[in-house]
Structure formats: structure tokens, C-alpha cells
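Our consortium's second objective concerns turning raw sequence data into structural hypotheses that experimental partners can test. To show how far this objective has progressed, the report includes one record in full. It was chosen at random from the queue rather than selected for favorable results. The single chain below, 349 residues long, was entered without modification.
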Amino acid sequence: MATMADVARSAGVSVATVSHVLNGTRPVLPHTRQAVLDAVDELGYTPNTLARSLVTSRTRSIGLAVSAISNPYFTEILQGVEAAAGERGYSLLIADPHDDPRHERKVVQLLHERRVDGLIVAPSPDPRELLTYLGRHKVPTVLLDRVVDLPADGSAVCDQICAESAAPTARLVTHLASLGHRRIGMVAGLPGLSTTVERLAGYRDGLAAAGLAYDEGLVVHGDSESPGAELATATLLALPSPPTALVTANNAMTIGALRALRGHGLSVPGDIALCCFDDFPWADLFSPRLTAIAQPSWDIGAEAVRVLLDRLAAPDGPARTLRLPCTFVHRTSCGCPEQPLTSVKGTPS
């Protein structure tokens, strides 16, 4: 089996130079780097990652903890994380916390015990145990999709990255209002999640901008899942004066809402208009095609890796919260012709 010394002799460089090329620890001239890579390929050299981790205290691995990996939104985030990590020579260890605070704390500990260099976590509705653990053990962490209030004592320093939520939701509401709708229902997500709070705030902002009063009877929680949204939508449809338009707060709940509408014999947009937060690959295959807010999910995942590696390089830097703009995808479920894509930006954090 070839060794690093064999690679160095073949490339005509020092062992230290080979190490710098393979570990990315120092810039190397392009022709020297290529000579090392050619020697690695020719000799079939495989780095001893275990030995390297013992020397550097780094495993070049990242722990990723996200719930509902089967959800297309989180699947695309995973793809972004994997691509960005792979480009930088990092591997992934993946766990599903199931949006359960106690299970979240357990899987994060397991990932940490696997000596990952850092963590990327989509926090649960109650992340207090998570933040206590991260603060106690000083684990470099990026929180994604959901924003949390970090401890005031600075014990847990976590960077955060997510998409805008409030302004894009307001855009859906004002769009429906511009079409003449005055009773606009909202199927909101799991209580406690920041995305739920922010999208509800956006819903109210949209109503206010359109000169419409907020009616708490038009807001139901689908708990971020399809079955819950189906029941929640049925509740709205049973009102003495049901909504004429509906906003759903994520892709899974959109499916549940559509099931409920179909079960009540209602057509979209003939009987009720529908707009949804979260675009997904088959949204334009429905009839009618779904008007939606598209989150930059792949970019969120890739950016989370970049931010985490920045944190590993500068562990004492201040925590950052980054928000990426969404895109308004105008199709036909709202009851009007399709329009070009537009970005929807909110206030930078």
C-alpha cells in the first residue's frame, strides 16, 4: 500500500507539501498541486483518515440533523449540504431528530460522540436541551431553516441560516386580496417553530397591507404535516362563512389541503383559490398548477456548510444569522394567468 512518502518521492516534493495539498492547510502552486494529485492517482494512495484525525483533532466530517428527510424541501437542503461538503473534502453523518426535543438532544450527542468537526441542525420547536448541550460542549454549529433565540449568556454561539418567511407569506396574501378575496384562510405549521411564527406574522402583515381585518377563526394549524392539514382545512370549510382563498404554510400541508378540498367536492381555483409556501418538483404538474413561494433550499444547505467552515476557522467570531430571498412562482391555482418569477426579500437580520 502506497504511503505519503511514496507520493512525495513520485511528485518530487516534500511530505509536508503532500500533506498541505491533501488537507488544504496551505496554498500550493497549481503545477505542484497537480503533480501531487497525479502521483496520488498513479500510486492509488488512500489517506489514513483515522491517523490524520488523531494528529489534527479533525475528522473532516460534519453531522447533519434534520427532520423529515423524505420531505422534498429537506431533501434539497441535504443535496446542497452534501455537494458543498464533498467539494471541500468533508463527509456527512446524518440523523433525523423527528422534531422531538428529547430525541434531538440524543441524536446530536451521538453525532458529537462520533467526533464530527461541526454540526448543522434544523432545531425542534423547543431547542432548549439542544442549546444547553451545544453550549456546554462548545460544538461548532449552524442552525438552519428555523431561527432560535440564543442564550443571553453567550454559552451557545450558533450561526443561523434560513429563507425569508414573513415577507413572502405577505406576498401570497396581498396577491389573493388583489384578486378580490376578502376571506383568506391560513393553514399554519407546527406551533413553536420560528417558521410558523414568521409565516403567521406575514399572513397578518399581508391582511393589514390589503386593508383586511384579522380573523382568528380563519387560522388553523396543520402541524406541518399532510394529515394535520387535511383536518385543519376541513375545519375551515365547515365554517358558516368559509374562506374563498387559502394559504398553506409548507408543501406537505398543501397536499393535505388539496385532499380535503377534493373530499368536499371543491375545485381549485373555481371554488376556492390556493397559494402555498414551498414550491416542489411536481407543483406544476397539478391541475391547476400551484402558485407558490419557492425557497432556495439547495443554497441554504450549501451556505450552511460554508458558514460552518468559517466558524471552524474562526471559532471566536460573533454569531451570524443569514436570510436568503425566496421566489414567487406565479402559476394558475390562484385563478389568474402565469407571470414571470420574482424574488421576495425581507428585512436583513
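The partners drew two points from this record. The chain has a mean pLDDT of 89. The chain is about 45% helix and 15% strand. Both points have been shared with the crystallography group to help prioritize constructs.
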